Automatic annotation (TrEMBL), chain A:
Localization in the cell: Cell inner membrane; Cell membrane
PROSITE patterns from the UniProt entry: ABC_TM1 (PS50928)
Signal peptide as annotated in the record: none
Membrane topology: Multi-pass membrane protein
Descriptive protein name: Iron(III) transport system permease protein
KW Kinase (keyword) present: no
Family statement drawn from the similarity comment of this UniProt entry: Belongs to the binding-protein-dependent transport system permease family.
ABC transmembrane type-1 domain boundaries: 95-303, 391-586
Keywords carried by this UniProt record: Cell inner membrane, Cell membrane, Membrane, Transmembrane, Transmembrane helix, Transport
Any Pfam family the entry gives: BPD_transp_1
Annotated transmembrane regions: 43-66, 94-122, 134-155, 175-199, 283-302, 333-356, 395-416, 436-457, 463-482, 565-587
Source species of the chain: Pontivivens marinum
A GO cellular-component term linked to this record: plasma membrane
From TrEMBL, chain B:
Gene3D superfamilies noted in UniProt: P-loop containing nucleotide triphosphate hydrolases (3.40.50.300)
Protein name: Iron(III) transport system ATP-binding protein
Keyword Chloroplast: no
Keywords: ATP-binding, Nucleotide-binding, Transport
SMART domains: AAA
InterPro entries: AAA+_ATPase, ABC_SmlMolc_Importer, ABC_transporter-like_ATP-bd, ABC_transporter-like_CS, P-loop_NTPase
Organism of provenance: Pontivivens marinum
Record PROSITE patterns: ABC_TRANSPORTER_1, ABC_TRANSPORTER_2
Domain of life of the native organism: Bacteria
GO biological process: quaternary ammonium group transport
Sequence ranges assigned to domain ABC transporter in this UniProt record: 4-240
Any GO molecular function: ATP binding
Presence of the UniProt keyword Transport in the record: yes
Length: 593, 357
C-alpha cells in the first residue's frame, strides 16, 4: 500500500513537468528535417546499382551490332555478327557441346548432392560429420584448383592413371573428354546441391510429416523416398538451375580437360577468341557472349516457371530444427565405406595430388616420391615479383570488393525490403541481374565500358576496375546472405524507431545495421573467399602490374609450368583454409551454414 | 479543444478497402478506444495516425498541423509527427539496454546527456522499472517489456499516445493489473490516448469514448455507457455484451421508442428501437443473455421456448434455448429443465434494429 502511494506521488511530480515541458517544447513533438534525407539516400542507392549493373551490359549489346571493336574510331552498325553466329557450324557444335556437358555435370552434381544430403543429414551413418565437411571442400576451392588436382592424379599422364596403366596395360579412362569434364564439374558442384537440399528441405522439413508417414506403415527408407524426397523438389530445381549456370560459364575445367582433346565450349571459345587470339574478333566475342547469356537466362527462366509458388529468395539458410535420425541398420557400415570411398577418390586424392605435386619436381609412379621432393616450385613461385604482386593485388582487391560489396548489398536489401521507395521491384531485378551474366562477360563488359564511357576510364590501370567488376558480379551472392537475415528482423523494430523520431536513414543505421552485424560479417567473409579464389571475372581486366592470383595461375597452366602452378594452388588452399578457420574461431561465422 | 481530426480517411489495398471513410475527432486529454474484431481496420487506422501507413484517401490533422491529405499528397513521416507508439509486439530493440531503448528518442532530439539521463530515470521510475535500466529486453518478463515500451513511448513527452493492443501478450491476471496501471498513468499525465483493442472489457473499463469498428467502418461512437446500454446497430450489441440476435418482422417506426415485432413462429414481442427511422419488414431483435428471465415479470413479453443443454461456468449457468428456429443463450443462476418452457423479456431489454443491407 505504502509503495503504491509513493509511486503515485512520483507520478504526480512527473506529470507536472510533463505538462509544462510539453507545452513549451513540443508543439508537434516530432523531429523536423530541412530536407528529405531518406529519399536522397534511396535514389542514390538506386542510381549506383543501376549504373553498376547496366554499365557492362550495354557496351556488350552495342558491340554485338557494330562492325569493328568499340575502341576503333569509325565503327558502323551491322547485323553481320549475329549472322556469322547463326551460320557458323562451329559455333553450333560448340553450343551443343556446352549444353551436353552442362546437363551431365548437373545430373552428377544433383545425384551426389541429394544422396549426401539424405545420408549425412538424416541417417546414423558413421562419420557423417567429417564426411559432410570433406564434401564441402570443392566449394571453398576454385574450379581451377580442383581441375588441376584431377589432371595431376587422373589425367592421361596422371599419377593414379599411370599406376593403374602399369598393372593392366593401357590407360583405364580418358579424362580429356566431355564425360571427364562432366565428372569433374559434377563433383565440384555437388556441395551446392548438397547445401540446398540439406538446408532447404532435409533439415527444415517438419519431422511430424515423416512421423505421420511412419504411423501409416512406411519403413524408414520408404519415408525418405515417399515424403522427404518429394519435399526436396524445390531445392533440387533451384540448385540445378544454379549449377547449370555455373557449368555453362566455367572456364578452367573445359580449358584443362577439353582443349587438349580439341573440344571447345562457349567459355573456352570466348577465351581463345577474346584473349589468346592476336587479333580478337570483338563482334564475334560479343555475339557469343549474348548467346551464353541467353542460355543462362533461359535456364533461370525455366527455374522461375517451375517454382512459381514460394521460394522467393534462394538462400543457403534454413531453420535449425533437429529432425529425427533414420537408422540404416545393417547398411550402416557398407554405406559409410562407399561414401567414404567416393569422397576419397573424388575430393581427397585430387587435393592431395596438388600438395604432392607442389613439393616434387616430377610426379610419376615410376619414380619414388622421396627422390623428387623439392622446394624448387615454391622458390620459383616466390622468386617472381609478378607473382608476389598478384598475391598482394588479390588481397587488396578482395578486401575492398568484399567491403564495398557488403555495403552495397545491405543498402540495396534495406531499400528493397524496408522502404517505401517507388521502384523497389526494378531495383531488385537490377540487383539480381548479374546472375544471368557469366563472370567472364561481366569482365568483358567492364572492359568495354572502361573504353567507351569516359568516367569509367579513370578506373583503367588500377585495382578500381577489378573492384567494380567484382562488386557487380557478386551482388546477388551477398544479397543471398543479407536478405534472409533482414526477413528475420520484425518490421515493428524499425517502425518503432520512426515513431521516436528517427528518419529512414537513422532507423536503418541505429536499429537494422546493429541487428544485421552477423549477416554482414558472413557476407564479407563469403565475398572475400570468393574473390580470393576468383579468376574468371578478371580475365579481360588484368594488365601488366595488375595481375591477380587466379589469372596468373591460368597463365602458368597455359605456359605448362605445372609445378609452379601446384605450388600456387597449395598456397591458395592454405590461405582459404586459414581464413575459414579464423572466421569460425574468432567470429563464430560459418559461411554456407 | 479538438486535437486530432480524421476526415473521410480510407486505405485501399488493391481492390480491398481496409478502412473506408473514417471520421473521428479526439479532444485533448481524452482516452479513445478503437474496438472491433480482427480485420476491422482498427490497427490500420492507428497506423495512419502514427504515420506508419499512408492512407489512400481523406485527411488527418493534429491541432493546426496537417498530417495527411490524400488530395494534395501531403504526408508527414512518423518521425516528424512525434507521437508515442506502443506496439503489440513491444518492438523493443534487442541490441540496446533498457536505458538505451528509452533514451533513443532523446538522443535523436539531441537532448544534452545530463538531462537525458535524468529524463530516462524519471520515465523508468514512472513505470516502476528504475533498477532494471541496464538490463536487455531479452532478460525481461513480458510485463516488464510492456512497461519499457510505454516508457520509451512517453519519454520524449509526445502530445499523443497511440497504443496497439499493448496488453494482448500478457496473461489474464497481469492484464487486469496493467489495465488499471495504464489508465492511472494516462490520467495523471493528462495524455491524449488512442487505444486499439479487440477486448470489450478493456474498452469498457478504460475509455472515455469507444469507437466500434467493423469492415473498415465506424459502426458506433460513444461513451462506454452509451455503447453498452444503447447500441444503435446489432453489431455493437452482439460484440459488446454478447446479445442474442433474432430475425423478426415488424412495422415501420419513426422517432424511435416502443415497437412490436413478430418472431418467425408468430409470437409477438414488445420492444423498443434506438433508430430514428425503423423500416417495416425484416428486422433484428437483440436481447442480452442476462436480461432474459424465467419468472413472470411486469411489463414483459412471454415467449415460449424449447430449453436445451446448459454449461456450468462457476458463478452462473449458460443455457441454450430454441425459439422460432434460432438458438439463443441465457445466463441463469439455476438451469431450467430441458424441453418446453417460457421466458420473459421486458420491452426495454428487447432492442430492434434494421437489417443490414
Amino acid at each position: 500500500m505504502h509503495k503504491r502511494v509513493q509511486a503515485g506521488q512520483r507520478r504526480k511530480g512527473y506529470s507536472m513537468t510533463y505538462a509544462t515541458q510539453r507545452d513549451r517544447a513540443y508543439r508537434g513533438g516530432g523531429v523536423q528535417r530541412s530536407f528529405d534525407r531518406a529519399r536522397l539516400a534511396q535514389w542514390l542507392i538506386f542510381i549506383v546499382t543501376a549504373a553498376l549493373m547496366l554499365a557492362p551490359a550495354l557496351p556488350i549489346l552495342l558491340q554485338v551490332f557494330v562492325d569493328r571493336p568499340l575502341y576503333a574510331d569509325d565503327w558502323q552498325f551491322t547485323l553481320s555478327n549475329i549472322g556469322d553466329i547463326l551460320q557458323s557450324e562451329r559455333i553450333g557444335r560448340i553450343a551443343l557441346t556446352t549444353g551436353i556437358f552442362a546437363v551431365f555435370s548437373v545430373i552428377i552434381a544433383e545425384v551426389l548432392g541429394i544422396g549426401a544430403a539424405l545420408l549425412i543429414g538424416r541417417t546414423d551413418l558413421p562419420g557423417r560429420q567429417i564426411m559432410g565437411d570433406v564434401l564441402m571442400w570443392p566449394l571453398y576451392l576454385s574450379h581451377l584448383i580442383f581441375a588441376l588436382g584431377w589432371v595431376v592424379m587422373y589425367g592421361p599422364s596422371g599419377f593414379i592413371t599411370q599406376s593403374i596403366a602399369q598393372h593392366v596395360g593401357g590407360t583405364p579412362w580418358n579424362l580429356y573428354s566431355i564425360a571427364g569434364m562432366a565428372v569433374v564439374a559434377g563433383i565440384s558442384q555437388a556441395p551446392l546441391a548438397y547445401l540446398y537440399c540439406l538446408y532447404g528441405a532435409v533439415r527444415s522439413v517438419d519431422s511430424t510429416l515423416e512421423s505421420a508417414a511412419r504411423t501409416v506403415g512406411c519403413g524408414p527408407l520408404q519415408v525418405l523416398r515417399r515424403v522427404t524426397l518429394p519435399l526436396m523438389v524445390p531445392s533440387i530445381i533451384t540448385s540445378s538451375a544454379l549449377n547449370l549456370v555455373i557449368a555453362v560459364e566455367t572456364l578452367s575445367i573445359p580449358l584443362f580437360l577439353a582443349r587438349p582433346a580439341r573440344i571447345d565450349t562457349l567459355s573456352t571459345f570466348l577465351y581463345a577468341e577474346g584473349i589468346a587470339a592476336s587479333n580478337p574478333n570483338h563482334g564475334l566475342v560479343a555475339a557469343s557472349s549474348l548467346l551464353l547469356m541467353l542460355l543462362v537466362g533461359s535456364a533461370l527462366m525455366v527455374q522461375r516457371i517451375l517454382l512459381r509458388q514460394g521460394h522467393r529468395y534462394e538462400t543457403v539458410k534454413g531453420k535449425g530444427t533437429r529432425p529425427m535420425v533414420l537408422s540404416l541398420g545393417k547398411l550402416r557400415w557398407p554405406l559409410a565405406a562407399l561414401t567414404g570411398l567416393i569422397l576419397l577418390v573424388a575430393v581427397v586424392v585430387p587435393i592431395a595430388g596438388i600438395l604432392l605435386r607442389a613439393f616434387t619436381s616430377f610426379l610419376s609412379p615410376l619414380v619414388p616420391v622421396t627422390k623428387v621432393l623439392t622446394f624448387a616450385n615454391f622458390e620459383q613461385l616466390l622468386g617472381n615479383p609478378a607473382n608476389l604482386r598478384a598475391i598482394s593485388n588479390t588481397f587488396q582487391i578482395s578486401f575492398v570488393s568484399a567491403a564495398l560489396g557488403t555495403v552495397l548489398a545491405v543498402a540495396v536489401a534495406l531499400v528493397i525490403q524496408r522502404s517505401s521507395f517507388k521502384f523497389t521491384g526494378t531495383l531488385e531485378a537490377l540487383a539480381y541481374s548479374p546472375r544471368v551474366i557469366p563472370g567472364m562477360i561481366t569482365g568483358l563488359g567492364i572492359f568495354y565500358a572502361a573504353i567507351i564511357l569516359p568516367p569509367m576510364g579513370w578506373l583503367r590501370g588500377n585495382i578500381g576496375i577489378m573492384v567494380v567488376a567484382y562488386v557487380m558480379a557478386t551482388l546477388p551472392l551477398a544479397l543471398g546472405v543479407i536478405q534472409p537475415a533482414i526477413i528475420q528482423i520484425g518490421r515493428d523494430l524499425d517502425k518503432a524507431a520512426r515513431t521516436v523520431g528517427a528518419d529512414w536513414v537513422s532507423s536503418m543505421r541505429l536499429v537494422m545495421m546493429p541487428l544485421l552485424k552477423p549477416a554482414l560479417l558472413g557476407s564479407f567473409i563469403l565475398l572475400f573467399v570468393f574473390h580470393l579464389k576468383s579468376y574468371i571475372i578478371a580475365i579481360f581486366l588484368i594488365a601488366p602490374g595488375l595481375e591477380i592470383m587466379g589469372v596468373t595461375m591460368l597463365s602458368l597452366w597455359t605456359n605448362g609450368d605445372v609445378g609452379e602452378l601446384a605450388a600456387f594452388a597449395t598456397l591458395q588452399i592454405l590461405m582459404v583454409a586459414v581464413l575459414l578457420i579464423l572466421s569460425r574461431l574468432l567470429f563464430k561465422v560459418k559461411i554456407y551454414d | 479543444m479538438t486535437e486530432l481530426v480524421l476526415k473521410d480517411v480510407s486505405r485501399r489495398y488493391g481492390d480491398a478497402l481496409a478502412i473506408d471513410g473514417i471520421n473521428l475527432s479526439v479532444t485533448n486529454g481524452e482516452f479513445l478506444t478503437l474496438l472491433g474484431p480482427s480485420g476491422c481496420g482498427k490497427s490500420t487506422t492507428l497506423s495512419a495516425i502514427a504515420g506508419l501507413d499512408q492512407p489512400t484517401g481523406g485527411r488527418i490533422s493534429f491541432g493546426d498541423q496537417l498530417l495527411v491529405d490524400a488530395t494534395s499528397g501531403t504526408f508527414l513521416p512518423p518521425e516528424a509527427r512525434g507521437f508515442g507508439v506502443v506496439f503489440q509486439s513491444y518492438a523493443l530493440w534487442p541490441h540496446l539496454s533498457v536505458e538505451d531503448n528509452v533514451g533513443m528518442a532523446l538522443k535523436l532530439r539531441k537532448v544534452p546527456a545530463a538531462e537525458r539521463r535524468a529524463r530516462i530515470a524519471q520515465a523508468l521510475e514512472l513505470v516502476e522499472l528504475g533498477p532494471l535500466a541496464d538490463r536487455y529486453p531479452g532478460e525481461l518478463s513480458g510485463g516488464q517489456q510492456q512497461r519499457v515500451a510505454l516508457a520509451r513511448a512517453i519519454v520524449f513527452r509526445p502530445p499523443l499516445l497511440l497504443l496497439d493492443e499493448p496488453l494482448s501478450n500478457l496473461d489474464a491476471q497481469l492484464r487486469q493489473q496493467a489495465r488499471v496501471w495504464l489508465k492511472d498513468i494516462q490520467q495523471e499525465l493528462g495524455l491524449t490516448t488512442i487505444y486499439v483493442t479487440h477486448d470489450q472489457d478493456e474498452a469498457l473499463a478504460m475509455s472515455d469514448r469507444i469507437v466500434v469498428m467493423r469492415g473498415g467502418k465506424v459502426v458506433q461512437l460513444g461513451t462506454p455507457q452509451e455503447i453498452y446500454r444503447d447500441p444503435i446497430h446489432p453489431f455493437p450489441a452482439s460484440f459488446i455484451g454478447n446479445a442474442n440476435l433474432l430475425a423478426v418482422t415488424g412495422g415501420a417506426v419513426s422517432g424511435g421508442g416502443s415497437c412490436v415485432v413478430t418472431l418467425g413462429d408468430g409470437q409477438i414481442v414488445r420492444a423498443r428501437t434506438p433508430l430514428a427511422d425503423l423500416r417495416a419488414g425484416a428486422q433484428l431483435l437483440a436481447i442480452r443473455p442476462h436480461l432474459i428471465r424465467c419468472v413472470p415479470t411486469q411489463d414483459a413479453s412471454e415467449i415460449n421456448v424449447e430449453f436445451g443443454p446448459e454449461s456450468y461456468l462457476g458463478d452462473h449457468f449458460e443455457q441454450e434455448a430454441r425459439v422460432a428456429g434460432c438458438t439463443i443463450r441465457l445466463r441463469l443462476d439455476a438451469p431450467q429443465p430441458r424441453g418446453a418452457g417460457r421466458i420473459w423479456v421486458r420491452a426495454q431489454d428487447a432492442v430492434v434494429f434494421g437489417v443490414d443491407e
